[in-house]
Structure formats: C-alpha cells, structure tokens
Specification:
4 copies of one chain form a homotetramer. Chain A is an all-alpha fold and 200 residues long. Chain A contains 10 helices and no strands. Chain A has 2 domains: 52 residues, Orthogonal Bundle (Arc Repressor Mutant, subunit A); 136 residues, Tetracycline Repressor, domain 2. Chain C binds a DNA duplex (21 and 21 nucleotides) through helix 1 and helix 3.
Chain lengths: 200, 200, 200, 200
DNA sequence: TATGAATGAGGATTCATTCAT
DNA sequence: AATGAATGAATCCTCATTCAT
C-alpha cells in the first residue's frame, strides 16, 4: 500500500522543517537541540520524532530540499543568450535568494564550513558537473571575445560569496552600515561590478 | 608583583589555543567539546581547565586575538596613496590572511553566522568606525574622480566576502575546481575584478 | 488552562522531596548529591531533573514547604488566652514538631548554621515580624503582672533551642542518655521549666 | 630522632587549622574545599597537604582539639559547692564559650547534625560518662532538697541548647532581634531561667 | 619548605531517543 | 496522532590528591 500522507501529516512535517531551518541555520547542527525545534514548531519533542526518525533526519531533509533549490539557478543560464545579461540574471537571482531565504543560506554555510559532512558528495558530483558545464560556456564566450577574459570558476565564487555574504554575515553587514538597508545598494553594486568585469 | 608566566604555562596555553582554534573553527562553539580540544591538544581535560577557567574562556580568548589581527589591515590603508593600489594592497592582504589563517577565518564566520553573540559590540563599535572612516576616504577618491563611482560599503563587502570565501567555503571551492589549486587564479581574479571596478 | 498535575507527577514529586529531605537534612546542601537523592528516591538521576529543574530547586522547594509549617505555630498563640497556657501550648507544639519532623528540623538547622543563604530574607521579614508581634503580647503580660518579667526574645530562643535540640542533636542526646528514650522526660522538663520561669 | 616541630611548622599548622575552622564551621565537611581553606590560610593547596595528609586530617584534628575544650567545663563542676551557683557557673561558662568560639560551636553542631560520624565514640564514651557522673551529683542535690526536682539530663540539654543557640543560630537570632545585641540579655535570661528552675 | 602542573573520580546538567499509554 | 515519563550517554566543571621540581 502506497503511503499517502494525510493533510495533518503534511502540515506537521512542514512545520517541523520550518522550525528546524530556523534553529539549525542559527546554531548549526550540534548547537541545535530538539527542544529548541519543538519549541519553535509548537509541537512536543516526541511528536517531532514521530514524523522524523531522528534529529539527523530533519537536518538531512532540510539539506536535500535546500540543494534542490540551490542548484536550479545555474541550469537557467542560457548558453545562447547575451553573456553579460545571462550572468547578471544569474547573479541577481542568487542575490534575491539570499534576501528571501537567508536561513537556507546560513544552513548551507554552516554545513560547508564544517566540511560538508552531509553534502560532500553532491558538491563533488552534481554541483561540480554543473559548474564545469558553465565554465565551458563562459570560456566559449571568452574565446569568441563576447566577454572580457575571466576565470569562470573565480567568477562564480565572486557571485556566490558576495550574494551569500548579505545573508550569512547579515549581522556584520548591518553593524557596519548602521541604519542603512544593505539591500538598497547591493544589487546596484553587484551589477556594476559584473558589468565592469565582463563587458569588453 | 606581576604574574610572569612560566615557560610551560606559555607553551600549554598556546597549545590549548591552537587546539581550540582547530576545533572551534570547524564545529562552532556549541558543537565543540572540551574532550575534542583536549584530544587535539594532547592534554587531559582537567588540565585544560587548569589553564583556562572554562570552555567559554578559551573561545573568547581566541576571538579576542582574532579580532586584533582582523582589524589591522584596515588601518594600513593610506588615504594619501594611490587609490587603486591601496585598495588592492588591502584586498591582497586579506586574501593572504585567508590563505594563511583559514581556521581563524572560519572561527570568525561561525561567530558571525550565529549572530555574533560574543563580538557583536566590536562590530558595532571599532569595526563600524574603521569602515566609516574608510568610506570617507573612498568617497573622497570618488568625488575627485580618482576612482570610478562605487559604494564604499559594498566594495568592502566584495573584498571581505570573496577573500574569506576561499577559507570558509574551502571544501566547496575545491570540490568545484577538482584538482586545481584555487589559490593560483584567486589573486589574479581579485586584482582584475577590483581594477575593472575602480579604474577610471 | 491551569496545568493540572498527573497522579504520577504528584507521586514522584513527593517521592523526590521526601528523598531530598532525607539526604539534605543529613548532609546539608553541598554535602548532598543528586546521586544520593536518586538512590533514596528509587529514581534515575535524570528523572529527578525531569521533575525539578535542578538540585537547587529541590532544596528550595523543601525549604519553602518547611518555612510554611515552621511559622504556623507562632500565629496560633492567642493574645487573649491564659499567658502560661498559651506559651506552653506553643512550646509543646514545637516539641512535637521536632519529634515528628526531625529531618525538617535538621534541614532548617543546616540552613541557618550556614548563614541562611536561601531563607535569610524570610528571617528578616516574616519571622522577625511574627516574633516582634509576639514580643508585644508577652511584654503586655509582663506589664500587667500576668507573667514574671522575662525577655520575650530570649524566652522564644529558649523554646526554639531546646525543642529543636532533641531533633538536631539527636545523636548526642541518645548517646548521653544511653538507652532511655529522650522524649519521655522532655515534655515534662519543658513544661516545668517554662512554668517556673513564667508563673508569678 | 624525635620529630621536633620547627617554629614555621607550628605557625603554619596553626594557620591551617584556623582557616579550616573558619571554613568547615560554615560549610560543613563536604561543603568545604581545600581551595577555600588554602585561600583563607594564605597558603597554596599543596602546601596544606604538606602539613596535613588530607582534608580529612585537618577536620579530624580540629574536632579533636575542640572536644578537649568542650569537655573541660563539665569537670569544673564542684559537687561540694553550692548547687545553683555551680550550675550557673557552668552555664555561664558555656555561654561565654559560645560567644568567644562560635565557629567551634558550629563545627560541633555540623558534626552532630550529620550523625557524628567522627566523634560518635567520644559521645558514647567520655561525654556520656561525664554527664552520668554529673547526673549523680545533681540527683544527690535533688534528693537532699538542695535544688528543685529536675531531670539532670534535660537540665544539661537546656543549658547546652540555649547557649549554643546563640552561636549556631546566630543569623536567626540577629534577624529576629533586629539591631539589638543578643548577648546583652542572654546571660541575664539564662541565669533567671536556671534560678527559677533550680531554687527551692 | 613550597608550589606549579597534572589528573582520576566524581557531580550537576543536557539531550537524543525510547517507552507506555 | 500525540505526549508524559524515563534514561544512557555525554558534557562542562570541581576537587582532593599526586607528581615534579
């Protein structure tokens, strides 16, 4: 019999994942406790473990979901489109994701900083393949003189690091900028930087 | 009489701090245990606490040391020097620090991601002041047409995020780049990017 | 919705408090361990902490309960009654409490000897007020010649010290008296002493 | 070679015992730490253990010294003297000891409350013998009508408990009496009480 | 004689997980 | 589907004592 999930089941799983994201993204895996997650979820601790077999399972489910969304934008780059426009589209999408899903970003950052124990394989597999493919495209653009000569890998790192910085280092960004909203100038700067870097 | 530290004392404190850095930078404060640190330090757990009153004290000492080194480069920027050269000098220094002290960088990243519970004040105080001062300098350069118009804050974030990315996201960087040494192209790219962004 | 306690909850809390009283009254707060209390209670150590948040909480709960019962007898003294009879009634009540609740008495004694870190405020507040009020009554009796001139405070100390002596110094009392039951002559002596002291 | 103690040895042993008394009397045996004692003594912890083999040894030495002084007054009672005067002399001596050596009193109280693990034997031996002898004397006085009929044991307990109360329950006594010095009325009351109780 | 260094044996408390209902 | 009850395995920290000098 195929396990069809009831409405309540779906709702609670979603609630737990949301709570898990909230907590894990701030305190990391080991720094988070089921009590915290249960508190945020508004459920009892044993009830959490009724829906997920373990703390680990919640964390892994979150990471899996995250990776899916994390990879999507790369595939949206159109090798046939205008180079600068395509890169900018990608970069802005990344920036918006950092704005809209800062907790996901921090969850990811925590996982990577700790050596990617859970998602190491994905990094070496799917992610690497996607970026290698992208590098071929970019190198093609460079070879045909459509963009300035640029290392595709470091280009990607620039985009990743800066966009995620606004989410992951939010506290520092806000501390440094005082009351100013960081996001106001962020996109402008990102676009300017990439245009200068890429436009021939 | 000023308590002069024994040779053994100095050695062991250094050993413990090194071990603490190793462990805290990877697992964060809550994810690290005194057992791990003792293991790495090659000392017994109570002996750790003979030199430092608590786990917290080790962590705070590390952060304090870190902050000191972290702030230095900013102050080395010479308002009277060549704008692009000064910014480049700073950026390259930062990059080298990430290369040479990746654990310090990750320790810092962990602290910030978790909301900077320990160093929040420094961020709002000394760090903010330093960057505000730097912004004045950069804005001066912009106003006199010596560099392209850039937002000083986002310029700084670009430098910070990219340079630290190589340390904090090392696993991902290496996964994506396969066998290639990330550092070979990193400085080149950093310089290119900043020159394009800043040169009028 | 008021948290109504389960039957099990009530039972276990009572069990723990009884065990805590047993242990704390003999070894004092610092000399007692959760292991001892768990052993006596027949519960696991973490289970103790499931019902009470800390060792301290068990101790404080016990002291709070104790103080309530400890204060009651004072309030039962009727200013309008026969002076000697009222004092005797109070003294005998105290004596019976020492007999029936020797552990409570020792718990109290331990707390006081160590400087009353927990209940210092109650001593300066409620207890002092009660005894000051009592002193007024006794002084009234003295002034109207209904009892011999006595210092109300030292009268109270006499009653407290002697009655509690049988509980707190039980070992010594029994050692000195050999096989004789201390309580047989105790009440007799107490009554005789107070009558001689008070009767005009 | 007979171990003759050097001057420094004597001095340090005395210092340690004084510090031990200070600490043990307040926190009890298990509640006291060598660190506390070392702190009070102004000596290093290992140095303490150079003079005394263990924490236990310090405690036992203190108790032994204490018992010696504690027993003396009883022997000073003169069976041939005036009954009331002799009892009063004894009681006042006890009171003065409580005033002058409150820490000794509390140390003793702590030991007894905890079941007299160290000095149980002395209580059953020397102390019991002394009080039994005293009882014979008092009973003689009673038989010959020189004092009112009193139970010698409970008489002794009255004296012990009240006099020690001022030392052991000092905090409570002072709390109840407010600013008044407890000792001013104490002796007066003690004398009055005993005279009333004993005088035919 | 004195003390800096070191540690094994606790001791309070936390936490993921299991059990019973 | 939900939760009160329970616990073994940590985890931070304390402390009497030992060791080396």
């Amino acid at each position: 019999m195929p396990k069809t999930k009831t409405r309540i089941q779906k709702k609670n799983e979603a609630t737990i994942l949301a709570a898990g994201l909230e907590v894990f993204s701030q305190y990391g895996f080991r720094g988070s406790t089921l009590d915290m997650i249960a508190e945020v979820a508004g459920l009892s601790k044993p009830n959490l473990l009724y829906y997920f077999p373990s703390k680990d399972a919640i964390y892994k489910t979150l990471l899996a979901q995250l990776l899916e969304n994390w990879m999507k934008p790369v595939y949206a780059i159109d090798a046939g489109g205008d180079p600068v426009a395509e890169i900018l589209k990608y970069a802005k999408l990344k920036l918006r994701m950092s704005q809209d899903f800062p907790r996901e970003s921090r969850l990811f950052a925590n996982e990577i900083i700790q050596g990617a124990p859970q998602i190491g394989e994905v990094l070496h597999g799917e992610l690497r393949r996607a970026i290698v493919d992208l590098a071929v495209v970019v190198n093609g653009w460079v070879a045909t003189g459509r963009v300035r000569p640029v290392d595709p890998y470091h280009l990607v790192f620039s985009i990743w690091s800066l966009t995620q910085h606004y989410a992951d280092f939010d506290v520092q960004v806000r501390a440094v900028m005082g009351g100013t909203d960081p996001m106001i100038g962020a996109e402008q700067h990102l676009e300017d930087m990439l245009r200068q870097l890429l436009t021939v």
